[in-house]
Amino acid sequence: MSVHEVVSEIAGTVWEVRVNPGDQVESGDELLILESMKMEIPVLAEDAGVVEAVLVEKGSSVAEGQVVVSVRT
Amino acid sequence: MTGWLPENTELGLRRQWAAEMGGPGAVAKHHARGSLTIRERIGHVLDRGSFKEIGRLTGEGEYRASGVAHVIPAPYVMGLGKVNGRPVAIGGEDYTIRGGTSWRGDRRKGGQGGFIEDMALQYSIPLINLIDGAGGSVASIRKRGHAVFPGVDGFERSVELMSHVPVISAVMGVAAGGPAGRALLSHWSVMVRGGSQVFAAGPPVVERSLGLTLTREELGGAKIAVDTAGTIDNVADSEADALEMIRRFLGYFPTNVWGLPPEYPITDPIDRIEADLASIVPADRRKPYDMRRVVRGIFDLDSLFEIQPSFGRGVLTILARLGGKSVGVVANNPKVYGGAMDARAARKQARFIELCDTFHIPIIFLVDLPGFLVGPGAEEAGTLRDGMRAVYVAMQATVPMVTLVIRKCYGMAGMGACDKNGLNFKIGWPTAEIGNLPVEGGVMAAFRREIEAAPDPRQRENEIEQELRQLTSPYRMAEAFAIEEIIDPVETRPYLYDVLEAARVGMPAKLGRKPRYGVRP
What we know:
Chain A is mainly β.
């Protein structure tokens, strides 16, 4: 068991949050949708696990490299 | 190995000392770390039995009255060999002997200015550097009795090689100083995850200079050198994988700039129809898609070799084959900033275009490019300078290039995805949307007076936006020959194959070194 911190590889605004703490996710699932450069760009889970925390909310600004979700794997 | 003459017996003995490297103890320690010896590494890269060693007898001899007692080999092994039947020059440091530090014979074997560099240049054959050494040591000051000027063993030959023959550097262990510099003076470089590190100077120097205590891995492991900095191009999971990648990389390249890339039999039918291609691009222009799937649908199955997959991820740079012939693919990745070009993507693209141009590998642009990345972060990162450098490099390139617009193609960055210096042949899928500027956002700037004078300005802005959007249909552009052809996505593979086949006809007359004049932005 370890906590994996999912970082956004781009800067943008949170368009939609797709998961809640406690949700089971699989590798490749969409955790968030960011809006950046007029596109809706998903942030994906890298590993399967349970969402521990969602660290941003709809409308938040996200910087490149920022941790947005943590997943217990 | 040994003959009946005493001289031959001595030759056999000396060869055996060379084969023993740093001795059984040092070799066992090296293996215990999970590393291969330099001789094993060379064996992995080369065709079986093709190694012809040069300088096998170099080293430091110990003599008794009866003759030679032992020779500690020079910590560098090199020679000629073959990769897929083609000659190469190959060499690398032997870490089992004094950690691969330099040795002083009458002539340098490897490293910058060494015999192996001269041989690659004089014979016009690829050079493979297997780097595992810490470079210079201040101990040489004591040995010489004076300090040396930087570049006493300089990079001038390493630099010259870059316009003559493919140069590959594999960082197999730690590379600091000169060996790190040599890793960069290559057309492609690879390192091993967890097993190799590269930096200008290692942890002891960093601690002394800056008071920072870092491990080698924290300072120059693959996470920094490959993913973050782009110092090294690719990372492999093991030494064996890294060495196998060298063989694959060379397979796309001619032996030198005076030849054309090798051609392989067609194993994947040219008319293979990938129905998937027709539906990959979502109708909703705000939704991204997997550009790697597009690439796989067009080029030969199992022919893709992605350069720098983890750096500058807004653009994909992939060596591939189409009908068995090498192509360089530059494809925007809409999943990162909608495919916008940031500084890192621009650096990656510019270098890849120079690589392909230098070795006469035609380039296909798969374009989904909203423009340069915008915003304060992008401006601070120097996106304009790196981006314009990518545009400049594309305009100086003379290798055939074909532009295929998958979706967006805008602005100055879009210009850099075209063969403006050549035929400027641009085709598109029906999903293409193209312009000097994106319509949204541009409308208010261009029609401010008209919009503000309208009874409902917001509605007027929308109306103008709608009107312009209809005019940006790729079919209207094709009517005006502003784009030369629109193709059905499923026709892409055979269409590009035929275009490239024709484009290659004139290439034999344009071989040789590519002069590049002027000052890049």
